[in-house]
Structure formats: C-alpha cells, structure tokens
Design goal:
By secondary structure, the protein is α/β, with parallel strands linked by helices. The protein is 37% helix and 19% strand. The protein has 26 helices and 35 strands. The structure holds phosphoenolpyruvate and magnesium ion.
Length: 837
C-alpha cells in the first residue's frame, strides 16, 4: 500500500485474468530481462493508463508504449506477443508521445480478433522497466478489471533515478536515440555497435518495440528489426556505463561509411515478358556474353543424430577457426587495398561467426547428438527465419550473410575445396550468391553474375559494383533451369538476361565490348607519355595512393608522380604509433616505387572522426570542425615532428614534397616551416623539401594569395572543400548527389586559388575526387590547374582527355560557368562544350 509520495499503485490497464511473467510465452519477457512485471490475458479491446504520467515512448507500430509515472517509475505496456509484426495494422493510438495522461485514460484501441488470429498470443505485459530502481509488489489478484490495483511500486532504498554511485558495478545509464543508419540496424551498423560496446566493461542493451538485445550479439541486435528513424532505448550497466552510453549513442547516430549503394538502374522485374529474356534488377551494370555456369548449394543427407558430442564440438570449433582465419585474411587484403566496403562487410561476418546466440544454438544441438554440420546449418537457418520474419527487405537481405557463413563453415566441416572450375568468361548463375562467393568468382574472372533471388542493396551487389562485375539479381527461379553451358548475353544495366541471343546479337555485344576495350588499350598505350593539350599546355597527371603497392600500380599505369600520399595508412588499425624508422621506410618505399618521379606526401590527417587508439584526443561535438589535419600539431606537436623527421630522411629529398592538410591561416604554414627549418638543422641538412598547402577549407581558398607567398605549391582537396563550402557532410547519404564539386561556388574558389597562386608564380593541383572526373578536366584546366592527382586506374583516361582539349578554349568557356546557378547547370554546360566520347 503506498505510504509516501514516492510510492505508486499501478492499476490494471485491461480486463482479464492475471498471469505472472514466468507464464508468458516469450523468453525475453518471461526471463524478466525487460524488467519485473505482470501480464494480463485481455478480455477487452482497449488499453488504459495504469497510472497518471507522461507518455515517454510510443512504438511506431502502435502496439506498445511506455509511461513515466510522477515518482519516476517507467511502465511499459505491451499489447500481445510479437505484435510488432502486424506493423501497426489493427492498432489505433489514442495518445501521442510526450502527452500527459491521467489514470484510466484510454491509450490504445486494438483489434482483439486480429491479434488473436495473427499473433503468437494476446497476453499483454505491464512491465516496470526501471526495476533496478523500483520494487514491485503484486496485489495477487486472479482476475482484474480496468482501474483495479495490479501492483505497488516503491523506490528501492539504494536507488536514484539515474546512476548508483554507491555500488559502481551496478551503475546504470540509459537514453534514447533515433537511428540514422540508412536502412536501419542491419549487419554492418550492428557490427559497429557491437564493437563499440566491446570497448567497455559495462553490459549494454538496446530496447525496441518491447524487445531487448545485448549489444554483444549481432544477431540479437538485427533481430530487433530496428529501422531507419526508429527510436531506441540504450541502457548500459556497469562501472563505465556513462562512457559506454555516450559511445553507443555516437555510434548509433553516425552513418556507416559508404553504407548507401551507388544508385543503379533498376529495371522492373518481368515488366513485359519478352520471349527468351529473363528480367531482373540491375545490381552492377555492364554488357557481357558467355557460357552460363550454374553453381549449386551444399545439400546435407539426413542426420542419424547419434554422434559423439566431444568429437562434433571439436569439428565445429576447428571449422569455425578455419573460416575465421580465412575472413581475417580477406580483411587484411581489403585493408591493404583500402576497400572500405569490403572491410565493413567482412568485419560483420567475423562478428557474426562469434555471435553467442549462433554458437549456443549449434552447441546445444550437438549436445543432443546432432552432427556439427547439421547443428550449424540449423542454427543459421533459425536465425535466417528471424530476419526474414521481420518483414523488412533490408533485414531479409542480410540473411544472405548468414547463409554465406553457413556455406563456408559447411565447406570447412566437409573438407570441400572452395574453388569453382569456371569455364573462361563464364556468366555464373546461382540461387543466391554470398559475399565470399563473389570475391572468389571475381578472382576467377567470371564475366558476369546472375541470381534468382537477392536485392540491389545486398552486400553481394555492393561488392559486384566495386569490382566492376556485371550483376543482375531477382531473376526468378527460371534462371536455374537454363542448361549448363548455354551461351547467353547479360545486359546488366537493363536488368536483362538474354537466353537465346542469335549470332547477330553476339556479334553486336562483341563489337561494343571490343570498341570499349580498344579505346582503353589505346589510352593505356599512351599512358606513359606526358599529357599536353592541343595548344601545348602541359598537365601533370599524378595519382592518389595510400601505400607503396598502390604507388607501384600508379607507376605502371603511367602516373607522372604521386599527387597525394595519404599517410594515415601507416597509423590506423594498430595499437601503437609507427616509430620514426618505420615511417621513414614506408615513405622511402613509395619514393622507390615511383622511379624518378615526384611524390607529394601529406602529413597525417587524423583527429575529428578518424580516431587512433593510441592517440586519445578530446571527444568532439563537431568532429569535422575539430582538431583534425594540421590542427593536431596544436595538441600533439611531437607526433608531427616525428613524421617530419622521418620525411626529411628519405632520399633523394628533392623528389619528396610535403603537403599540409586542413590549413586555414598563414600562421599554421609559417609554424611548420619553422619546425622544418629547425629539424633540418638538427639533421644537418642543407636542402629543404618543397612545402605545399592543401586548399580544402574556404578560408584557405580565399587566402590563397597570402598562403602562396610562403608555400611552394597548393593542392586543392575538393572533397573537403565541397563539404565545408556547401555545409554538407561529404558522407551524408541523403545529400550525396548534391555534394558536387562542380558547384559554381566551388569553381569560384578554385579560380580564386589559381589567381592568388599565380601572383607568386606557384602552381596549383587538384587531389580531391573532382580530378578523377573526366567531365571536370576542361573546367579545371580552364581555371588554371596544372596538376591533376587521380585514382591510379584512371591515369590513362584523364591523360587522354587532356590531349583532346584546347587550353585557351577551356579558359574562355570555364569563365562562363562561374555564373551558372547550380552544379547541375555546370554539368550540363560541360557536356555541351566538351562532350565525353
Ligand atoms: C580532399 O579533401 O579532397 C582530400 C583529397 O583529402 P581527403 O579526401 O583525404 O580528406
Ligand atoms: Mg581532405
């Protein structure tokens, strides 16, 4: 009975028989993981407020809400079990989030019949979600009517409403946040959350729509079915709960890099049945023809279920270890080649392989006599069913990542070689391929990929686009019936698989492909020669690289030098900083890879959102506006000194040019000049390397003349310059199409940079992504750019573009572009003035 103002009586929100939580047909609720509480099997169709309070949270699907009572108790009211799956159908919310409600007020009206027919159970929950801070005493009624007492709540003696400093181990912090990850909390964002939680000793959970999952389980997190813009509750319990909470909130609100697939042409599936053509959805464009090669999945025979437990557990563990080590190799390779998407996908796979829910389920089955193969397959299939049951396409697609691990571990268990014998130029057909299949097939030079199932946003699709491998998904099961070896045409851009192309069509495809190939070969043949415009203006076409192996590729592709070495490659993904000697060797290796050509080495550009484990920097409210690039010298000057010392020891020093990122005022440049002079004296060097400044914030572009007075050259970083000029995050999914460096505002800044530099006879290059866009080449030359630093495979194409331009005409026409109204208008004008062949 309440006897002080902090005590509360919670009344029945529904009519019906009362059950204890242990009798609820749902493991999470029954275990009390969500908090202590009581259930009612409802006889009516309206949920009422069990006490006065404020509606803290309303499930998007209308089947649950949480009320915070005036004494701080938080009460979750959840109608039925698994009712989230009705996706709001059959529920009418009568209150809004944030509203104050009175005791007994009607909150949700629901379709009793529909919930009874379509959901697991009508049994509804009344849960005290902050049971750590409050004690619940049931009234012990067998049946209740709305408004009759159900339980009493009183504060626990040691609790506060937030944390428990008296006993740090049980401190708790929680908060809610809206999910901004594109497509919701699917595998890669979930892996990020797991990794973040692993950095703390606290136990962390996400709560959503009446369900909870520990942040240590990727599958549990994905199983919550959290969509983009859903609001979730994060709770952390333990000594470092506050820090864990802040880190998780940050991770939940930061979009995963490159999460959004490049837009692709999506053809409607089987829009108009065309004889001999299967219509699917384009996942990666390209036109190819070749023999069809069908891949079949692994089928297991029936299991007698009488295996020796220890032996099977051992098998499973060694198979898992084998696959883990294969995935680690893939990850290393992806890190070396800076393939961020590949890294994220396979990091998520590694996390899935360690998932406690999967391992527990497989182990349990083995303990009951199953073979390791069958136990693993069944564990995966059960989790796939959860993901498919969420009714959200993106989550359903992630079931494919689980199937990938199913196949890989089965192969390891069965000792099957994982190498397909592909006929030359094969177009591979499968029910649904997995990311690791795709890597394997790409290595084996498959010409194209077709899948009966799958989606254009799947990981396989993302990888196929990255590899330039034409790929069509969702072709339907007919594609699996096409005879092995039949010659087909895959017109992936249009989502078509032509099953019976005639000779003329074959010839046409060959002709188109040969023309493309020929052009590429011609460009490649000329790649080593310098690039000059028609009217004799020399343009240096250098390459952006991030390692000595990329520098070798750039050199082989004809790069006139390295225009930007991003030195971060040496500093990331490790526990301690590289020492001076390691740095010197790494920089020397890049110089050695480039013959006698110049190499521009940018000093480290970390800080802000690129954090290093061994370099704790303050948490930033606005990371991209914080201590990044050269500003790091403010807080860790010794790190920059060490890098400069390493750079000064490469030979020959005249081939090494140093570039400073994120400079915004002349003093920053002067300071580094002084440091360089001091270090040169220390090392008894008479020679000084050239020192350049990146123009990547508007302030630097506007001050180009003053900077050029003290710099040897300027290099424009159009990626950041776009971000800071347009005030659009360069990684923002929703703004991706608008962060276009051909915006007239950017062109004006580039023009101003070039004219400022010209006053001091300094040259200006571009090392941002705009340099690799052939449509931009004439504009940049016209505005006065003399060096373009591009991605290594594009050197030949950009050199070819330069050779077909007239610099005087570029100069004249590009002035007009400065007055246009948008990037779109500039692009249109570029197509008109300088069409791409
Ligand atoms: C740029 O900002 O354009 C640039 C080249 O630097 P990064 O992309 O490494 O930030
Ligand atoms: Mg930059």
């Amino acid at each position: 009975m309440p006897n002080n103002k902090n005590d509360l009586t919670v009344c029945a929100p529904l009519n019906g028989p009362v059950l204890s939580l242990g009798n609820v047909p749902d493991d999470v609720f029954a275990s009390g993981a969500m908090g202590d509480g009581i259930a009612i099997d409802p006889l009516g169709d309206c949920l009422h407020a069990p006490c006065a309070g404020v509606v803290m949270h309303v499930a998007r699907t209308g089947h649950a809400l949480t009320i915070r009572a005036d004494n701080g108790a938080e009460i979750l009211l959840h109608v039925g079990i698994d009712t989230v799956e009705l996706n709001g159908e059959g529920f009418a919310l009568l209150v809004k989030e944030g509203a104050r409600v009175s005791d007994g007020q009607a909150l949700i009206r629901f379709d009793l019949d529909r919930v009874a027919r379509q959901c697991k159970s009508l049994i509804s929950l009344i849960i005290l979600t902050n049971s750590d801070h409050f004690e619940l005493q049931p009234v012990n009624a067998q049946t209740v009517k709305v408004g009759e007492p159900l339980f009493h709540v009183s504060p626990r003696s040691t609790s506060t409403t937030h944390a428990l400093p008296a006993d740090e181990a049980s401190s708790e912090a929680s908060a809610s946040i809206r999910i901004t990850h594109r497509g919701g909390l699917h595998a890669r964002p979930a892996a990020l959350i797991r990794k973040t939680a692993q950095g703390f000793s606290s136990q962390s959970h996400l709560h959503f729509a009446g369900k909870s999952a520990g942040c240590d389980s990727l599958i549990g997190l994905m199983g919550l079915g959290i969509g983009e813009q859903d609001e979730v509750q994060v709770s952390c319990r333990g000594k470092d709960c506050e820090a864990a909470l802040q880190a998780l909130l940050a991770a939940l609100s930061v979009p995963v890099h490159h999460e959004v697939p490049t837009p692709v042409v999506v053809a409607p599936r089987r829009a108009a049945a065309e004889a001999g053509v299967l219509q699917g959805v384009c996942a990666a464009p390209g036109l190819v023809c070749g023999p069809l090669f069908r891949l079949n999945g692994i089928e297991l025979p029936a299991d007698p279920r009488n295996h020796a437990v220890d032996e099977q557990l051992q098998h499973l563990h060694s198979a898992l270890e084998q696959v883990r080590s294969e995935i680690r190799d893939t990850l290393d390779q992806a890190r070396r080649s800076k393939d961020v998407e590949e890294q994220e996908i396979f990091a998520a796979h590694l996390a899935l392989l360690e998932d406690p829910a999967l391992l527990e389920s497989a182990t349990c089955a083995i303990e009951q006599g199953s073979a390791a193969t069958h136990a693993w397959r069944d564990a995966i299939q059960a989790q796939c069913a959860v993901l498919l049951g969420l009714g959200k396409p993106l989550f359903a697609e992630r079931a494919n990542d689980l199937r990938d691990l199913q196949q890989r571990v089965l192969r390891a268990l069965l000792g099957e070689a994982w190498h397909y014998k592909l006929p030359a130029g094969a177009i591979v057909v499968a029910h649904e391929l997995t990311p690791s299949d795709l890597l394997q097939l790409s290595e084996q030079r498959a010409a194209g990929i077709c899948m009966a199932e799958g989606g254009a946003t799947s990981h396989v699709a993302i990888l196929a686009r990255g590899k330039g491998l034409p790929c069509v998904v969702a072709l339907g099961s007919e594609v699996l019936e096409v005879p092995q070896g039949q010659r087909v045409v895959l017109d992936a851009g249009n989502g078509r698989l032509e099953l019976t192309p005639d000779d003329a069509r074959h010839a046409e495809v060959h002709q188109i492909r040969s023309a493309q190939k020929l052009k590429r070969q011609q460009q490649q043949a000329e790649a080593q020669a310098p690039a000059r415009t028609f009217d004799g203006v020399g343009i240096e076409v250098a390459a952006n690289v991030a390692s000595s192996s990329e520098a070798q590729l750039a050199f082989a592709n004809g790069a006139d030098g390295v225009g930007l070495l991003r030195t971060e490659f040496l500093f990331v993904d490790r526990r301690t900083a590289p020492d001076e000697q390691e740095q010197r060797q790494a920089y020397q290796a890049v110089l050695d890879a480039m013959g006698d050509k110049p190499v521009i080495i940018r000093t480290i550009d970390v800080g802000g959102d690129k954090q290093l484990d061994y370099l704790p920097l303050p948490v930033e409210a606005n990371p991209v506006l914080g201590l990044r690039g050269i500003r790091m010298a403010q807080v860790r000057p010794e790190l920059l000194d060490q890098q400069l010392r390493a750079l000064l020891q490469v030979s020959p020093l005249q081939r090494c040019r140093i570039l400073l990122p994120m400079v915004s005022e002349v003093d920053e440049l002067l300071h580094i000049r002084q440091r360089l002079d001091a270090l040169c004296s220390e090392l008894q060097l008479s020679q000084r390397p050239e020192l350049g400044v990146m123009i990547e914030v508007p302030a630097a572009a506007l001050m180009a003349e003053q900077l050029a007075e003290h710099a040897d050259f300027l290099s424009i970083g159009t990626n950041d310059l776009s971000q800071y000029t347009l005030a659009m995050d360069r990684d923002h999914a929703g703004l991706a199409a608008r962060v276009d460096a051909l915006h007239p505002a950017l062109l004006r800044l580039i023009a101003q940079t070039c004219s400022g530099a010209a006053k001091h006879r300094r040259w200006v290059g571009v090392c941002g992504a705009l340099a690799s866009d052939p449509l931009a080449t004439p504009v940049l030359i016209g505005l006065g750019i003399r060096e373009l630093s591009v991605s290594p495979p594009q050197v030949a194409e950009i050199k070819d573009r330069v050779r077909h331009l007239d610099a005087a005409q570029c100069r004249q026409l590009s002035q007009g572009l400065l007055n246009l109204s948008s990037a779109k208008a500039v692009r249109q004008a570029c197509h008109h003035h300088w069409p791409l062949s």
